[in-house]
Amino acid sequence: MSVVIENLSVSLAGQPVLQNLSLALPTGKVTGLIGPNGCGKTTLLRTIAGLQPMQHGAVNWQDQPVSALSATERARQIAILPQSAQAPDSMTVADLIARGRTPYLRAFRPMTQHDRQAVRTAIARVGLSDLADRAVASLSGGQRQRAWIAMVLAQDTPLVLLDEPTTFLDLHHQIDILELVTDLARSHGKTVIAVLHDLNLASRFCDHLVALRAGEVITAGPPAEVVTQDTMLRVFDLPCQILPDPRYATPVVLPA
């Protein structure tokens, strides 16, 4: 396991959000964090990234506490894409994606050929080569999200954290983004942790799911073991039926 969390407790504005949470997440897989609003998914993601202070406990990445990493080393190990990321209106797609190389740049020195190639490769992988000189603000929602994903690709970290990467996208673009995310793990060996709200898409695209409620892990494991009638009641208060997807054989939630 590459991410191991031990007895983690986190509070925000004096209110407990995560409580004595212990969890181990698989290497080179896509893990989806699911649960109702306010259950601690984003806080957990930020704590794994080393951006959120903890009251007690530990977050370990590859057998090393995240808190022991310098800011630069952490940025070379862990990439995080927050909800509703914003870029200056005039920033081009290429300039945004080049920001992913910041952890590797030396002060007052331009990008190397390796850095520029990493940016070109990331742009190509998300299908935005023809739009590299366009302003990010001029892109459609799906194109913008692909540009942000490309910035994460250019950062080239072994651990990738994504907070609701499909928010505000139509279904077609949600599928595009999730196919790109799964390719990070399956073709490039990245460990990906993503907050997702669509349970059926989470079941289809994730290798591992963690169901949270009120700052506690209710259950974790493969989608077929997590997405059950009992878990949906315990986590979401949702009576439902669970059927297998006719094509992918993954669980499909049908609310009662």
Q: Looking at the structure, what is the overall shape?
A: globular
Quaternary structure type: single chain
Pairing-aware structural class of the strands and helices? Answer: alpha/beta
User: Roughly how much helix do the residues carry, as a percent range?
Assistant: 25-40%
Please state the CA-atom Rg, rounded to the nearest Å: 18 Å
With helices defined by DSSP (H or I, 4 residues minimum), what is the helix count?
Answer: 9
Mean pLDDT: 92
Give the strand order of the largest sheet, numbering strands 1, 2, ... along the chain.
Answer: 6-7-8-3-9-10
Secondary structure tally: strands: 12
Give the termini distance in whole angstroms.
Answer: 37 Å
Per DSSP, what share of the residues sits in E-state strands of 2 or more residues?
Answer: 25-35%
Note down, in words, how this protein is organized.
This protein is an alpha/beta fold and 256 residues long. It has 9 helices and 12 strands. The protein has helices at 41-48, 71-77, 93-98, 113-125, 141-155, 171-186, 199-205, 223-226, 229-236, and strands at 3-12, 15-25, 30-34, 56-61, 64-65, 78-81, 159-163, 191-195, 208-213, 216-221, 240-244, 251-255. Strand 7 (159-163), helix 6 and strand 8 form a beta-alpha-beta unit. The longest helix has 16 residues, at 171-186. It is globular.
